[in-house]
Acyl-CoA N-acyltransferase (Sodiomyces alkalinus), 195 residues
Amino acid sequence: MDIRLLQPSDLPLIQHANLENLPENYFLKYYLYHALSWPQLSYVAVDASRPRTSPYDHPKIVGYVLAKMEEEPSDGIPHGHITSLSVMRTHRRLGIAEKLMRQSQRAMVETFGAKYVSLHVRVSNVAAIRLYRDTLGFTVEKAEPKYYADGEDAHCMRLDLGPIRAQIAEEEKQMEKLTRAKPWVTWGEIRALAS
């Protein structure tokens, strides 16, 4: 499984995954707006085991996260927002959603200096709530009555990105220490730092 940045050519496949898995659906231009406005924040999971039979064969996208920065945050604090997260049923419980979310959160901090990330989730979506709360550490900030078009309530959830900022700062410190100790660094040493 490969996780990579979403590309505009992925958008029809993302829309298909959304139609397959989620009750909320968006126009293609909404996905395009995210991809062009915040190209660093949205990722796809691609099934790398599927062989390509021609140069025109599209990759099999099995999951995605669509994310953005809040353009005019009411609290004045730069923060990200997860617009949509979806993993195909055939690829669930493999850690893909967690990897997509963590990659997007890190990009929010590195690229935009985000302090926290928010999202909305249906109160009936127990599996997603467990992922966000138990695996990723989100907390329920408030309930939003009748948030969804069908009248269902949403939990507004939030995650402080301070630990990610601290991890990035530590990695930068280690890299600086390594480059001061010797004027060249091998790819193996860089990979060891990243893991």
